[in-house]
Backbone:
């Protein structure tokens, strides 16, 4: 596709600079490694495949397709988040070399989102705080590829018991189920806006009606909800 061709062009540009290398580690091996965890269920990559010899790479290619990782420096990247303030991450210590292309050939999230944001002229990004730790990696990629930096704002998550992230996998309520319970989209929006601090009450409301009182400063921290 046209988007894939664009990703490939940027990927090849990084490869030509010698910044990429093949990684043959499986997901099970990564999680079994004795490595610190960033808090998003992904361990910091230990660089297992970073210095394989050409002969070893050739031998491993006979039995497994590799992913491709971007080499990162011992450098701290900082971002001034619109909600959380200063956030910084040392790429080598807190992240490790990260994947730009998966072993199935698909391009990774970090590369795709950086390229797409630039292509679409995105200058302001608002997303969940679970992606805050990805931001320094994306800023580093933007620097390497001479792409602009959006302004970032990360917001707290609605969670279930014990700070569990909501997901279909855990059979949390879908929008269809919430519509049955609350009766209308406005009722769902108003209820959520009220419990997270974006509205003074939990009365039904549209997003347009909430604009007059919207402020990131009013957001509570992680909100545990019992109705999911």
Residues:
């Amino acid at each position: 596709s046209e988007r894939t061709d664009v990703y490939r062009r940027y990927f090849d540009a990084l490869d030509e600079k010698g910044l990429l290398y093949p990684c043959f580690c499986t997901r099970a091996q990564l999680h079994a490694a004795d490595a610190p965890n960033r808090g998003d269920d992904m361990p910091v990559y230990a660089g297992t495949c970073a210095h394989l010899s050409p002969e070893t790479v050739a031998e491993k290619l006979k039995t497994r397709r590799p992913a491709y990782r971007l080499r990162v420096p011992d450098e701290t990247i900082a971002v001034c988040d619109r909600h959380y303030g200063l956030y910084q991450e040392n790429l080598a210590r807190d992240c490790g070399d990260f994947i730009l292309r998966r072993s199935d050939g698909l391009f990774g999230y970090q590369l795709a989102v950086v390229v797409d944001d630039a292509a679409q002229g995105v200058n302001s990004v608002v997303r969940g705080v679970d992606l805050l730790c990805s931001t320094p990696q994306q800023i580093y990629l933007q620097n390497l590829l001479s792409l602009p930096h959006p302004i970032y704002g990360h917001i707290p998550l609605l969670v279930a018991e014990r700070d569990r992230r909501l997901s279909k996998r855990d059979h949390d309520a879908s929008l269809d189920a919430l519509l049955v319970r609350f009766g209308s989209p406005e009722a769902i929006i108003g209820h959520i806006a009220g419990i997270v601090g974006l509205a003074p009450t939990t009365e039904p409301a549209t997003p347009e009606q909430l604009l007059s009182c919207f402020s990131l400063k009013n957001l509570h921290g992680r909100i545990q909800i019992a109705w999911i």
